[in-house]
Amino acid sequence: MTIKVIIRPVLLYITILLFISAPAQKIKTSEIATYVNSLSKTHQLSAVVIASYKGKVIYEKAVGYAEAEFNLPNQLNTRFCIASVTKSMTRIIALKLVEEGTLRLQDKLSKWVHGFPGGDQITVGMLLDHRSGLPHRITRPEEETITLHTHRYA
What is the C-alpha to C-alpha distance for residues 11 and 13, in angstroms, rounded to an integer? Predict the structure, then answer.
């Protein structure tokens, strides 16, 4: 089971991964809802929470505000600026795939992302070590902007 919580930088950041094990399989949707609701009611959580089990979404809910000062609530399709929050999680998942033999640190990026500029010179290991030579930003600023900002002053 995987539970992902993505939260605005100004609020609490949480990412919870529950690997499939006997105890994790017993967690019920109602228990997830109780936990999420208790955090939301005490204003400790502003997020979109999605829980899946064996590839099927078993729980999803948006809680809190995307823009608290404007009382704009989060929605299931709210976009978040998560910055570096996922770096360690990405590394752990990638190294698990390496351990399983699905991925190699020496794999070229072009093997996995066809047509990526310079992908033949960049390895998975370089990406994980932040030594690929890619600039900090490769997307345009407007692609990183929360959609709600476009409606804020309308």
Answer: 6
